[in-house]
Predict the 3D structure of the following.
Amino acid sequence: MTDPTRPENIEDIIDFAIQREREAQGTYLSYAGQTRRRGFSELLLSMAEMEKEHELKLAALKQGQSSAALFTPAAGEDLGLGDILVEVPFSPNMDYGDFLILVIRKEREAEQLYRKLEALTTSADVRSMFALLADEERKHRDWAQERYDEDILKEN
């Protein structure tokens, strides 16, 4: 696959999703190691673990299914992944508010990806798995939004 936003087959799509989960894990682990807020650090470690679980579910899907029959898009069809990807630079030195914005954007991106994949599958079981992953990403985003509203907006 030369352009990750234009996958050539379902394996490319799943590999792309796995890579995004790994990136989320790295971001959460990096910031957990940098923050002085113990509760926040523990929550970030928990979120990293949840992203690892997502990665493992995707890997199992890739190995355990005949993926050619699982999705309906025509070969070469633009799935619009480039439209939902948001490049948000991460720095272990970023402040808490900026990090929450990064989490909100990344989790929204992940939710949109899983909703897109959910709509493309023909398997009820796989559709349920993608719906579950999307819901979990939405919960992560909602948590970050609540923290931003409570911790950042109330301070200003």
Notes: The chain has five helices and no strands. The two ends are 46 Å apart (CA to CA). Residues 10-153 form a domain with the Ferritin fold (CATH 1.20.1260.10). The chain has a mean pLDDT of 79.
